[in-house]
Every structure is written in structure tokens, then in C-alpha cells.
Design goal:
Blueprint lengths: L16 H27 L1 H8 L4 H33 L1 H6 L4
């Protein structure tokens, strides 16, 4: 290195390809599952509206879609709560705590 120049090959930590593939696969499965749930809810919104909000179908559908919209607002808030909790306590404890 001359005159304060930067080393062209800094040491970088690289994960093994198998570990990267597993992480990408797990992320893809989780993402698919989440969006599948949203898709099923949206597809069955009229049935849900009829079951949970009796009365005018138009109002009931709007209320059902409002509940659907709330899930998009709550999702990042849950990430702010459960993400750090999972980092601190371990992944397994974080998975078990919302289910009890």
C-alpha cells in the first residue's frame, strides 16, 4: 500500500454455499407461506364477510378487507417486537412464545 491507498482485496467473511442455499430456501418457504395465507384470506373474503359480519354484504366486505389491511400495518410492528426478542432469547423460544 502506498500513500494511504486502500487494499484492493480486503479480507471478507464468506459463508459456505450450502449454508447460503439453506438460508435462501428457508426464507423463500416462509415468504411463500405468508403470501399464500394472505391470498387465501383475500380469495375467501366474501365468505368471511358473510360469516363474521352479517347484514349488508357490501359493508361486511369492506370490514373484512379492513381487517385484511390491518394485518399489513401490524406486520412491521410484530417484526420490531419479535425480531429483537428472537435475537436475544434464541429462535426456538421466539417461535414458541406467540403460540402460548
Amino acid at each position: 500500500m502506498k500513500n494511504g491507498s486502500v487494499d484492493p482485496k480486503p479480507e471478507a467473511h464468506e459463508e459456505p454455499p450450502e449454508k447460503v442455499r439453506r438460508a435462501i430456501g428457508a426464507s423463500a418457504m416462509g415468504n411463500f407461506t405468508e403470501w399464500f395465507d394472505y391470498g387465501v384470506y383475500a380469495y375467501t373474503a366474501t365468505y368471511i364477510a358473510d360469516s363474521f359480519f352479517p347484514g349488508d354484504l357490501e359493508s361486511a366486505t369492506l370490514l373484512t378487507l379492513g381487517v385484511f389491511a390491518v394485518s399489513f400495518i401490524i406486520r412491521p410492528l410484530g417484526g420490531f417486537v419479535w425480531g429483537p426478542l428472537g435475537d436475544r432469547l434464541a429462535v426456538v423460544r421466539s417461535w414458541r412464545s406467540p403460540s402460548f
